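It is worth pausing here to work through a concrete case rather than discussing structure prediction in the abstract. The textbook approach is simple: state the sequence, then state the predicted structure, then interpret. We follow exactly that order.
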Amino acid sequence: MNRTWLLFSQTVTILVAVWFVVATLKPEWLEQPPRLASIVPVVDVSGQGRSELVAVTSLSEAAQRAAPAVVSINTRTAPAQHPHANDPWFRFFFGDQAHPTPQTGLGSGVIVSPAGYLLTNHHVIAGADEIEVQLSDGRHALAQVIGTDPETDLAVLKIDLPDLPVILLGDSDQLQVGDVLLAIGNPFGVGQTVTSGIVSALGRNQLGLNTFENFIQTDAAINPGNSGGALVDVNGHLMGINTAIFSRTGGSMGIGFAIPTSTARFVLESIVRDGSVSRGWLGVEPRQLDRELAQHFGIGATQGVIITGVLQNGPAAAAGLRPGDVVTHIAGQPIRDVAGLLAAVAALRPGEPADIVIERRDTPMTLTVVPGRRNPTGRSR
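Step two, the predicted structure:
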């Protein structure tokens, strides 16, 4: 027993001595190996839509793919002249006030077509008399406004330059909370900047920013000047158009919002094809169903969207929709809230019949409606 203990103590003494020598002369040998990555996103390594879990040490490849297609946008708006601006006496007394300086604006955009089509925010170019686009390679071009959609805060521009870099549009419907994202734009006019973050939330609405809201929320830094820029995934594919931030200081506070590519694609295709965005309209007044409304209309359901008003001679009235009906599906799409109903109705093609599934006093029914064309300045549903 004593011999065993002696052998153990000698072994420990030798190991401690070795550790002391190594720690003194070669401390790096004792350091833990670096972690492969602080983030481990799911990436498409095959290029065939098949994703695998791969450790990523850098997002530089995604940035290099997407950044060339992100542009800076400078706008110029001529101020309204005073009606007496050319009167010599007025100019004598008021001087340069007769000719105020032009207003300028700053934003970002994304090239989405080799033909020169760009996506940006409507508020970036609204009212501008001149729009100049600067590419990351230093080239400049004046842009033509193809069309705008204020209800989603999107605009489509066109520039005429050869060999344009183009971003690939991704599938924003596949995003999940926690996915890694990059925001690319020109914040504060300092030049093209890339920031990283994750998807903080999906389907944000009722923010009072747009008529149609279905925002991606991210903590990637978005600042003034980023509006209209790209929100991309780890493959460099466009997932959204950066559009707004929540801030008490004017700078990023980790709450930014982007319009998903699914919405941007619809607006882009509609404007390029028709020159404007055409949306469906039913002529109803919906409300979120609660217990009080359920009791008032004498229905058993307590969740969903209830119709509280139907416009006389409107598409919904012609289809037989009545106040008190609870809408559960529109064109096969489940309806859970008023925002979902608004989006589903807007997606209908004017003049093309669509099925609406309702519950009328707890009895399921299917009605066929022919939606009209929505007037952006009129009723929204």
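Step three, interpretation. The chain has a mean pLDDT of 81. The two ends are 90 Å apart (CA to CA).
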